[in-house]
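re: that complex we talked abt at group meeting.

here r the seqs, copy pasted straight from the sheet so there may be weird spacing, ignore it
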Amino acid sequence: MTHPDLLILLVALPGIAFALLGILWLAGLHPSERLVRRFTGFIYSTASLLAIFLAVFSVPVYATLGDWFAIGEYRFPLSLTLDPLAVPFVVLTVLLTGLIGAFSARYLHRESGYLRFFLLLHLFAFGSLLLFTAGSLDLLLGGWELVGITSVFLVAFFHARPGPVSSATRIFAIYRSADIGLLLAIFALHHFAGTTEFAQLIQGPWLERSSSFAGSDALFTGFLLLLAAAGKSAQFPFTGWIPRAMEGPTPSSAIFYGAISVHAGTYLMLRLQPMLLNSTPITVALIFLGLLTAIISTLAGRSCPDAKSSLAFASVTQLGIIFVEIGFGFERLVLWHVAGHAAVRTLQFLRAPSALHEHHLMHAAAGGHLEPTGVHLEALIPTPLRAWLYRMAVDRGHLDTLIDKFVTLPVLAVAAWFHSLESRLVSTKLDDANESLPAALPTKSDA
Amino acid sequence: MSQHQERQFGSIPELLAHLAHYLPAQGPIGVFIHHNTLHAFQHLPFEQAVVEAGELFGAEPYMSEDAYRADLRRGRIRREDIDAVLAAEPNAEILPGRLDRTHLRTLLLRNPESHFDPATIQWRIEEGKLFTASESDLFHACLERVTTGPELHPSAPTRPRDGIFSRTGIDIDEEIHPLLIRLSAAYLDQGYAYWPMPLRERGFFAAALALLGQKLSLESGALSGLAAECRRQILMEFTPEESILNSLEFFAVPSGNFEEFLKAELLALPGWAGIFHQLEAHPQLAPHVRLPASLAAFLAVRLLLVRVATNNALSGEARLWRTTALVQRDDRLAKAARKFDTLRRLGLNATEVRATDPVAWAKLSAEIHACGPLEIRRLFHLAYERRHERQILLPLRTFRQSHPPQPIAEPPVAQVFFCIDEREESIRRHLEEIDPAIHTYGAAGFFGVAINYEGIDDAHAVDLCPVVVTPQHAVRERVPQHQEAHFARRQSLRRAWARFTHNGFIASRSLLRGWLATATVGAFSLLPLLVRVLTPRQYTRLRNLFNEIIVPRPETELSFTHSGEEEIHGLQFGFSIAEQADRVAGVLAGAGLASNFSSLVFVLGHGSTSLNNPHESAHDCGACGGRRGGPNGRLFAAMANHPDVRAALVSRGIEIPSSTWFVGGYHDTCSDDVELYDLHYLPEALRPQFDRVRASLDKARAASAHERARRFEFAASARTFDAALLHVEERSDHLAEPRPEYGHCTNSVCFVGRRETTRGLFFDRRAFLVSYDASIDPDAVYLGRQLGAVVPVCGGISLEYYFSFVDNERYGCGTKLPHNVTGLIGVMNGQSSDLRTGLPWQMVEIHEPVRILFVVEATEAAILKTIDSNATIAEFVVNRWIRLAALHPESGAISVYRDGVFEPLQGEPQDLPVAAASADWYRGRMEHLPVARILASEVHAS
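got the structure back, here u go
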C-alpha cells in the first residue's frame, strides 16, 4: 500500500468499526462485551501504529478521493491531508480514543448502553479523523458534524433522567446555531474564492504559511468561521454549555471536553490562521474572545466545588488562551499547548471519580494542613467587588442567562408571533368554510 | 400517617427538628456508615413502614411484581412458599362455599395479572379488541357494579411548584435548583474549589443573601427580582427562622399546614437538606472545614428562591398556587378491569355477577381491592424470604444433627480472629480448609477497643469504633527514638510531595499557571496516562517501589499505656492495665475463648482500598465507624501480650499461657492483602509455627480472591488462585473499575454462636459470623452485649442494601457512572443534581433483598430475655426489621421467631450437598449458591 492509501485506511478504520458493530446491532445480534473490547483494541492499536508510522516517515501525505461532483470547470474535490499541523491532532485522536476505549471497557462493564457507547466512540473517532485530515472545508464539515452529534448523544447517554436530556438538547441547539457559521462560511468561500480547499486558500509550507485571500471577503468569512469555532470550543458567549456536558459518562467527558472535541475549534482557526490574520478585526476578535473566555472561565472554575465542572472550566480557560495564541500567530506554541493540554486533561478527567481518595492521600501527606487557596491575589480585590465577582462566578458568568434573555426569548417571541399569526389566518379560513356547521359543537370551556 | 397526627410544633426550630427525621441520615461520604434507610420509620412494623415511606418519598416498598414472578418461574420462590405464607395469614369466607380469601389470593399470586390502565381499556373496548362477547358481558357486569366510590376530591397542591406546574406548565424547580445546588455545594465545600465562598463564616443564610443581593447581576426571567428581595430581607434583619415565617406568610400557608408544606419543600432536594442537617447536628463530621451549617438556613434560602420564582411564574399573584386543583384520574375502568380479570379466572359469568347480592358483592369487591398490587408484592416478598429461610435453616439443622460440636482436646495450631463481616466468611473457611488445625473466631472488628487514633501518616486523629460509641481513650502510633531522624526526613519529603501535588492540582486549573503547566510539560502526562490505564498494577508496583526507596516507612510502635494524668483533647491517653484487661477479657470471653489458647493468636482488622470509588468508605469496617481496623487489631494484640494485662486477666477467669503470643494484622477485603504488625517482637521459638500459619494465610487469601472472582464477569481469566489474587489486586488499583469489590452485597444471614457449629458449611460469603459460646455464659450477659452490638450494625447493613436494591433511584444513588464528587462531601449525578445518598447500583446489583436472618445459638429463654432488656433489639425484632431464629446450644433444635414466640422449624430433613473443597462447589458458577458441606474444612475428630 502506498502512503496515501495508508492515510485513507487510517481515517476509515474507526468508520469501519462503527459500521461493522452497527450492522451487527441492526441485524439483531448483540455483540458480547468481550468482542467489542477486543475489536476496539485491535482497531486503535492498528490505527495508532499507522498514525505514528505516517507521522514519522511521510509527512506530508496527500490522498485524493476523487471529486464529490463537478460542474464544468467547477469541482468539489475530496482529499485527505496529513501535514505537520494535522499530525498532533491525528495522533492524539487515535491514541486517546484507544485509551478511552480500554478504560471504558471496564468503566461501562454491564451497563445497558455499553454497545451504544462504543458505537458513538467509533463514530466520533471517525468524525475527528475526517475533520483533522480533510483537505477542504467541505469535507471538514462532515467530520465536524459527526463530532457534534456524537457529543450530543453521549451527553444524553443516561437518557432515562431528564437532566442529561435537557442538557444535551441545549448543547445541540448551541452547536446548530454556531454551525450555521461554518456552513455560511463554506458558501461564502465558494462564492468569493471559488474553493474551500486549504491548499488553494493557504500557501507555503508549515510555519511559513500565507494567504492571499484578504479584504472584506476575508473579514466576512472570518467572522463566520470564528462563530463556528467559538461554539465548538465553548468560547464566549457559548461557554455555558461546557459544564452541562458533564452529564455523560466520565470517559466520554475526558475525550470530548478534555481532549479532542473542544480542540476542534482551535484546529479550524489554526488551519486557516494566515487567512484569518490577514484581517485586523478578526485578529482582535480572536484575541479578545479568547481572553474574555479565559477570564470568565477561570473565575467560574475557581468557584466550582465539584470535580467535573471544575475540570470543564479549567479546560475552557486554556482553550481561551489557545485562541489568544492563535490570534498572536504562535503556531508551534499552539500545537504544544493543545497536545499538552489534551494529555493533562484526559488524565485528570479519568481521575475525577477518585478525587476523594486522592485528596485524602494528599491531605494526609501534608500533615492535615494544606495551604489555604483563594486568599493571596484575591485579597487585593475590595470586598464588595469580590462578592460581586463570586456571584457572577457561581452563575457561570451569567452566560446562560445572557443567551436566554437576548437570543432564546426573542427568537421564541418571534416564533410565538408567527404561531399566533398562523392560527389566526387558519381559523379565519376555517370559519369561512365552516359557517354552515351547527353551532352546538362542544368547546373547550364547556368541558 | 403524619398528616393525621395531632401534633403541634411550637416553633420553626421544633418543627424542623421533627422534619429532619425524614431526611437521609448520611453524612459526608468520606466516612460512610450503613444504617437503616427508613430509620425514621423504625418504630412501625416493617410492612407498614415501607408503604408509608414509599408514599412519602415516592419510592418502591418491595421489588416489582415482575421480579417476584421471575423468581417464581426460576424456582427461587416455590409454590409451597406461597401456600405456607398464605396459610399463615388470616383467612375469611368471601362467597360462602365457593370462595375464601386464601383461595382468592392463591389464584392472584400464581397467575400473572393483566395490567390495565383506563386509557388502554377505553381504547381497546372501542377497537373491540379487548374481549370476546361473553367476556365483554362480564366486563360490563363488573363495570355496572363498580361504584365511583367517594367523589373525586380535587387535591390541593402541597407546594407551589405543583400548583404552578399544573396551572402554567412551568416547573419552577428547574429554575431554582441549579442556583440553589451550586450555592449549597459552594457553601459546604471542604476545600475542592480554589475560591471559598466569601462571607461563608457568617452562615449560609447571610452569605447567600449577600451574594444574591448583589446589584448589577444579570437575572434570568424566572428569578428576576431576586436581588431586590434579598436586599429587603437583609434590611429587615431576618434570621433564617423569621425569613421562613415571612415566606410562609407570603405563600398564605395556614399554620396547620406548615408541617406538610415545609416537609414537601425539604423533600424536593432531600440530599442537600439532609447534609445541612447532618452537619448542623454533628459538626465534627465535616472532614476539613467546620461551618455553621443549619437546616433552617437552607430552607430559608430555598423558600426565598421559591417565592421569587412563584411571583414571576404567576405574574405577581403568588397566592394562586394554592387554589389550583391537581387533576385526578378516574380509575373506575381500572377497578372494573381488575374485578373482571379476577372473576373471569374464578369462572364467574355476567349473570352470576349481576345476581350477587349487594352484601356479598361488597365483600368480594373489598377482598379483590385489598389484594391489590401492593399486597401481592408483600405476600410475594414473604414467600421470597421464606425460601431463603429454608435454604439456610434446613441445611444448618441437618448439619448440626450429624456434626454436633466436638470438645477441642488440645490447642489448635493457631486461633485467628477476624471481623464478623460476611466478607471474611470465605477467607476463614479457606484457612480452615488449608490447615484444619487452625481455628477461626469472629468478633466485631474494633475488637472491643474504642479508640481515638492517629497513625504517623494520618492527617489527624479519628475514632475507630462503632458510631454509637464515643471513645474515651486516645492511642497514638509513635516512632521509636532511634528512628526519629529517619522519620523527620520522611515527613519533610511527604510534605514536599503534598505541596507539589496540591500546587499541581491548582496550577493545572488556573489561568497563567495552567498555561505554563499545560503548554510546557503537559505532554508528559501522556506517559502516566498510558501506564495507569493500560497496566494499573505495574503503576502501583512502580509507585510502591518508589515509595520504598524514597520514603520507607519507619518502625513504629503504639503508645497506649495510661500513666496517670495524661490527656489529649480531653480524652484519657491510653488505657490503664485494668482497662486493658477488661477489653481483652470482653472480646475473648464474648467469643467463647477463655481457655485452651494456641501459642499463636492472630487478630485481623479489615478495610478496603479502591480507586474510582467515592463510596470507598462503605467497604471499610462498619465496627470501626466506616474506617480501617488495622490499628485495632494491632492494639488488641499488643494489650494481650502485655505481662501485666495477662496477670490481671487471671482474676477475670482467663489464663493465657506465657507461651502464647498475639499477632495483630489487617486484611484488605478489596485486594485481599494481609499485613501483620510488630513481627520483630515475635518470640523466636514461635517462628516456625508462625511461618506455617503465615503461609496458610497467604494461600487462604488467594483462595478467597478466587472465590470472589467467580462473581465478576471480568475475571474469566482468573482460573488459578494466584491469577485471582492478581486480578483482585488490579481491581483495587484500577482507575476505571466501578466494582472494586461487591462489599456487603451478598449479606443475608448473621450467625451468632460457636464456629464449630457452622465450620464445614459453605455460606457463600453471605453470613456474618459472630463467635459466641452459650455454655460459658449462663446468665446471657455476653449474649446481651453481642446482640446489642451486632443487631443494629448487621441490621443496618442489611436494610441499607435492601432499600438501595428495591428502589435504587430513590433510596440508593443510581448507577455510579455519572457520579460527580462534590465538595468532598458527596456525589451528584452529573453537574447539577440532588446530593445522592444510599448505595450505587454497582454495589447492590447482585443483592437478594431479604431482611437479614439472625440465627442465635442460645436457648429461646436467653434470647427472649435479651430482647426484653434491650429496646433497640426489641424494635428490630418485634417490628420485623430483622428475622430471628434460635438454635438450641445442646439439642441443636431450631426454632423461628414469629410474633413474639419461637415456633419449631417445620420440614423434613434434607440431604446436604457435599463437596471436597470450596472451590469444587463454586467453580464455574456465578449465582448465589446453596449451603453445602465442605469436607476439607471439617475438624478431624481424631
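couple things i noticed - Residues 419 and 445 of chain B are 4 Å apart (CA to CA). Residues 373-402 of chain B form the longest helix (30 residues).
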